[in-house]
UniProtKB/TrEMBL annotation, chains A, B:
The lineage of its organism: Bacteria, Bacillati, Actinomycetota, Actinomycetes, Kitasatosporales. InterPro entries: ArsR-like_HTH, GAF-like_dom_sf, HTH_MetabolicPath_Reg, Tscrpt_reg_IclR_C, Tscrpt_reg_IclR_N, WH-like_DNA-bd_sf, WH_DNA-bd_sf. Residues 62-245 form the IclR-ED domain. One of its GO terms (biological process) is negative regulation of DNA-templated transcription. PANTHER family: HELIX-TURN-HELIX TRANSCRIPTIONAL REGULATOR, ICLR FAMILY, HTH-TYPE TRANSCRIPTIONAL REPRESSOR ALLR. This is IclR family transcriptional regulator. Residues 2-61 form the HTH iclR-type domain. The keyword DNA-binding applies. It holds the Pfam family IclR_C. The keyword Transcription regulation applies. SMART domains: HTH_ICLR.
Amino acid sequence: MSQTVDRALRILPLLAEGPANLEQVATRLDVHKSTALRLLRTLHEHGLVYRQGDQRYRLGGRLFALAQEAMENIDIRATAHPHLVALNENCGHTVHLAVHEEGEVIYVDKVDSRYPVRMYSRIGKPVAITVAAVAKILLADLPGDELRTLARKLDYPRYTARSIIGPEAFLAELAKVREQGWATDFGGHEESINCVGAPIRGHDGRVVAAMSVSAPNVVVTAEELLALLPLVRRTAQTISRDYAGYTSR
Amino acid sequence: MSQTVDRALRILPLLAEGPANLEQVATRLDVHKSTALRLLRTLHEHGLVYRQGDQRYRLGGRLFALAQEAMENIDIRATAHPHLVALNENCGHTVHLAVHEEGEVIYVDKVDSRYPVRMYSRIGKPVAITVAAVAKILLADLPGDELRTLARKLDYPRYTARSIIGPEAFLAELAKVREQGWATDFGGHEESINCVGAPIRGHDGRVVAAMSVSAPNVVVTAEELLALLPLVRRTAQTISRDYAGYTSR
DNA sequence: ATGGATGTTGCACATGTTGCAACGAGCTGA
DNA sequence: TCAGCTCGTTGCAACATGTGCAACATCCAT
């Protein structure tokens, strides 16, 4: 909509790939050097890009601070957090909380496993949308037409032999998830990692977030993890009640 | 420099305070509604802001993804991480890694305490710059004039009775830190939390990052923590060597 | 010294941004 | 049901702002 702002913002993902100098930025934006310079300066003034010693630009620290504050405004987080911690203390595994936002699913909270072998994930990281248990839960709640459109647009990377490939398989899996009210991911993202997840619902019954418990094969088998399902679902329901009571609107 | 981009970027910290509707944004930017609308739409297209159900805007998920990627480009992180983990396994306390960037100090890595009582901090969070051990270490390395300018500009919040207040006290503390090559924070930020930290240096001897070990009083006394100082300094030196060898430029 | 590569500045032009005014949608109370 | 309010959206004309150019500055290698 706004050309100038659009150009400036296109610089950010570009720099996210790695530091770049003025000319590289100008070339990739397809604008004159002087234009790129002005945009970079404006971003710099706002702390969104940082100029390192060798004159190359990279993303700046303000970005972290903003992401940080944004995270803290997500009110489901505050409600859920103590319950996630309690669940973690109870079962010892990694607990995740995720929300959906316009075609992306992102982790917004995480309580680490107490076992030395931990899975890699990080708050703020976009979730593998076609395979993760939390993603299935969140997307299963979308209206049918919107979901079909999304399913067609998605990529279906074959992370492992058990990854879900293609819109039909994905829609079928989501139908199952919607039906049963919970989801699993047994090695669909990383061979040796299993998850079980459950939805957190707002006062109107819509899914507002999803939580999951994850553990590597070397710690517990898929069956043992599945045995935790009732506990996970109970926790999700407790959070839902808490949230519905708490939410002001 | 660029008015349009400047206005657009001013929206971000504004939304970081909490969700806002079009009119609030327009008022706070001091522009017409239609202008604010166009800027918001552009930010929206890039995923930096998100429009929630009630039509209010808040910061969007792409921000997390960007911050995430930016973090992973900070190469000192990759070098330091295994050493931080090793130190954590050795002493059990929370370990932090921080860097300095234009007047701000931010945590870029963290390994959590194995004790149940953990301090609150989060990767990406700006550090309490006037009291934290890592901040003292990083700022102590700045050139004298730049440092004095900065010291005069800073706020000195009285977090606790032991917080450092005022530029003179701060500069004196930094001189001591520079002299001795390590820093502490005994309850200057939170009454019951102590830290000891050491600098990580690049090939030219300049401080490129700082690391620290933190623990609450209820777990170990300040004296016991101080006993870990040699270990912390040794780890920092190991990372420095690793980094100087590794760095390509 | 000389040449090349890259960052920076001032400026004239026209393109994109701006505020306005009018419209639309949703809500409230009479 | 309608008038009256608030708040988001749209089209447009005026002109402020962003744009690319060309010249200059700086740095490095030869």
